[in-house]
Write a structure and sequence with these properties.
Structural class: alpha+beta
Number of helices: 10
Radius of gyration: 57 Å
CATH superfamily of the largest domain: YVTN repeat-like/Quinoprotein amine dehydrogenase
Number of domains: 5
Strand content: 35-45%
Amino acid sequence: MHHTRLFLVSICLIACLSSAPASTSEYQSVNGSYTRRVWRNGDGLPEDFAQSIAQTPDGYLWVGTSGGLVRFDGASFAVFNREQSPAFRDESIYCLQVTRDGTLWAGTEGGGLIRYKDHLFRAFGVDEGLTNGFVRVIFEDSARRLWVGTDAGLFQLENEKFTRIDEHNGIPHMSVHAICEDKAGRILFGGWGLLIVKGTEKQYYNSSESQADNSIRTLCQTRSGDLWIGTIAGLRRLPSGETGNPFLHPKIFSQINISVLRESKKGQLWIGSYGQGLLRFENGRTTTFTAPNLLPHNNVLALFEDAEENVWVGTHGGLLRLSPSLASTITSADGIPQSINTIYHDPRGELLVTALNGQLFRVADQVLVPVQLPSSLHAVPLRNVFRDSRGALWMGTDGQGIARIDGGRVARFTTREGLGSDFTRAFCEDADRNLWIGTDGGLSRYSGSEFRNFNVEDGLAYSSVRALLLDSTGSVWVATDGGLSRFRNGKFQNESALERLRGRKVWSLHEDPSGGLWIGTHGDGLFWLKHGELSQFTSSAGLPSNKIHFIAEDARGNLWLSGPNGILSVARKALEDFANRAKSQLAVRVYSTAQGLSTNQMNGGVQPAGALLPSGELWIPSAKGAVRLIPDGGTSRNPPPVFIEQVLVDDHSEPLSENLRLSTGRHKLEIHYTAIRLGSPDDLRFRYRLEGFDPEWTDVGRRRVAYYTNVPAGSYLFRVEAYEIDDPRTVAGHSISIAWRPYAYETPWFLSLCVLATIAAAWGGYRLHIHNLRKRFTAVLEERNRLAREMHDTLIQGAVGVSTLLEAASGARAISPAVSDELLERARNEVRSTVDEARLAVWNLRHPTGAGLVAAVTHLARQTERETGIPVNVESEGTPLVLTPDSERSLLMIIREALQNALRHATPKHVSIRMHFGRQGLQVEVEDDGTGFHADQALTVVGRHYGLIGMRERAEKLGGKLHFTSSVGRGTLVDLQVPWPRT
């Protein structure tokens, strides 16, 4: 209690501020000028202690917590601690500072200093000259010198090394917690006392009041030049930066632990305390923020204003964002939320508000004040109000008809007086001063003396009426739960354009200056009726909801719509262009809890469901009160910076670069991106495209990650763009090139080799085919030659022998029948032998010779001698080798042919056969002493001397050589040389 009294007394002392007279200082609570959002451990912070805050030039917000350093893009947190980098020797980040070159410096509680530059962390400690690891403040002066204050020493960075400043040149040992530079170029160091340095001049002051008063925790000089000094014991202000001992100035706040001071861009001074919340000082007025309603905790540790003018507050209970609010919610004086039914702008200037409980209020000084009604209406549950052209105030009720207050007189009308239903929803007055009443049970018209009712049988689309509108032509439009009707010239018109609305719940109507009718439905979006044509706009076009409770148009041509998802504005021309297909996407500005609404649930269904004042203020009934929205005039904002934060390939993170090179064998790609909008991240939308893979852009809404599977190897360009939902034409983007190395079989050279190999294989196949054809032809030709040789050596030779025997038998019959018979018997045997030889020759069969070549040749010679009577001598030298049956038969056929040729053509007297088995091979000579012939001529006459050619072919198959030596009259020598086969 003692501290509380002291706190209240100290606040009253704000009258001592020289910038305002004492009578202007007052203590007031928050009036809804800020939107509040809190993040704690469960929202992504590693711990609730948010001790320091800074923002780097790229737009990221950095938060130092007791559990690590946090980077925030407005939507999600990225935590950096010992797990991510060894530079974090301690995870409690006490202070942060961003220098002019964009470098982020972080001071830890015991782990020294950390520098974040070019996406890398580096630790500074004892090795770099920083002898105390408890860093309390980091500051860069106008000369770009970096100062570091610790629990034991003041340091300055020079060439990546720290030099200690205190305990030298008259500067005492210091514990430094605050540093600032004033407009005179003096650097002030606060900690245990105050040190002021300018060039070589140094002044040191301390307080004799108490140790707490001497413990300076924060320093700030405002734009006005005032120097503010916060200590554990209170707050001092030195007007215009007065020189001298600051401790001689009285404290503005006493017994308050001032933890941090920060001046906003608008000149507001934010004052954070330890244990007593947050103060905002502006123009001599002080606003307080305390827990639990406004702050997450009353221990304020850090204050920061970002580039979007959001105020960030670090506390023991989490991180708080205070965003300038465009909206406020008006409730009754007791502050209890009221669910509002209708808001009516009375032509007399008042705002009349009906609550869902039936009460009637007026807005006065941003508070709902109950309206004093005649006693007869005290218990009447009101739904809406309307003032006619005569000045009478009409009130619709929930089940009790309507009431009129005119000049203090009250009149009641119910179904007994002819009203169509006692449940009213809308009022309208036509040019003839007839009052139209929309009810739950049809449409009623009051002429001043009587009611006339209209219903479905009269042409009304449906009996449940939601809204009424008198257009510029005098027609009355009736919105119902079953469609839209138009009453003109005394009856409901049958219009084909309205058939499309039949069965739809129409809840709101608006006519624009050009005569177009805008129609809001409950579930089917927005319609536009112009020149008999109806266009529709739904959530697929960019509307946040298809339920529209209220439509109005401001002086700038913007349509304002409300619904269960908040309030939105959109340029009417943009809607018309979209309907005419001149635009592909709507620029919609959405106002929700992020802009200060206490709820997104705007009420409707009973008219009027809102009011747009000539000043531009918009008033909408909501579930928690009357919402007052002051549009910002569509202030243009720079597009949010876009970054690609992480690339995962097969669930493994890749080092980021503008030209990413991926290894072979991966086909799953995941790209995380973001856009920084700290105040309203929910308004951002994203689209991306992987050029070379995606045929077109992919719109993904708020999603901040792109997924790809089965991406083939190749070169790609990934592009991502971000835009705000109310301005899709203003985009920002980022891109990286991705080169995915292929498998060896996917490379061009491999494919080229495959093509060459295919061509080579085809050519090889072709050559093989030709070779086989030739081989087959050669085999056929060889077989023909073989048959010719065999026929010549067997059948022809046998036929010649048989012919010789037959001639001999014929000539011997006259001399000796017995000899003739013997010759005939020999001829028969020769025929059998010849047939057998021919059969074997045709099938390429071989008789085993059994005794070998010498024996076969000797047998042939003896048989020839018997048949011809010409002596045939056989000689053999060397050791005979065992030959294969084919080789032996070929040699025998060559010798036989040479012998038969000599006997048949040369009429020799003697024939000799000489065989020499040497080391290199076999030499056979068949020599006769006959008539001889011209060898060259004989070899060229195939038809007559085929036997000689056959002999040479057999010799060549054996790998040997055959020579003929002959001349006419000198006999013939056949010389055959055959090498032994290699083993």
